[in-house]
Amino acid sequence: MKLLSLLPLAALVAAAPAPVPDLQQVQRHLQALGTMTAAFSQTDRAGRVLTGTLTIKQPGRIRFQYQAGVPILIVADGGALTFIDYSVKQVQRWPVKNSPLGVLLDPSRDIGRYARVVPTGNDRVVSVDAADPARPEYGRITLVFARDGAAPAGLSLQGWVALDSQGNRTTIRLSNQRFGVPVGAGAFRWNDPRPAGGRR
Fold first, then answer.
1. Which backbone phi and psi does 21 adopt, to 5 degrees?
2. How many CA atoms does the CB half-sphere of 101 hold within 13 Å?
3. In the chain, what are the helix, strand and coil shares in percent, each to the nearest 5?
């Protein structure tokens, strides 16, 4: 199971137009997010569903803690995004900025340069496609937000659809979102399964 097939990306930007109001609101949301926890449901291209808990701490930190019995962990510690498969004692790492999740985890970036709002036909839903047009190998991600006055900048992340460069699609759905919750640095540590690894 590869990281990019689990966490793919989205969007298309030719000449970056001036950000539209909804895109500016998404930028404000990412900057105001701080911390968030949520339950997630992940569906891959084969229809397999995994569940777990998502934890975010800005900037640059995220953890996908999968359900009991799934020997996979995905963690970003502020610099690198790490995929750990404990069943085969394998660790893979990428710079966060080079991954689809860089859209979520670097609120200092101007998303107007690489993202666009996608019409949804529903005034309560904001959908944003994002990708680095100079790096198509990073894949594409479409983020979906619901308008929520109690959430940071009036938006609540509902999930995303990611598509990697091999065409593998992954859908993440979130529920029970909680904002501004205490999250310690230890939440983004992981045990290295490699023989010379040790703890992080």
1. -50, -40
2. 33
3. 20, 45, 40
Distance CA 70, CA 73 (A): 8
Preceding peptide of 136 cis, ω within 30°: no
- 191 belongs to a structural domain: no
- Could you tell me the residue range of the domain that residue 67 belongs to? 3-177
Q: Report yes or no on 70 lying in a domain.
A: yes
84-116: b (≥16 Cβ within 10 Å) or e = bbeeeeebeebebbebbbbbbbebebebbebbb
pLDDT in tens, 170-195: 999 999 999 999 998 899 999 999 88
**Number of domains observed in the structure of the chain:** 1
Instruction: Name which of 123, 119, 98 is nearest 109 in CA terms.
Output: 98
pTM: 0.83
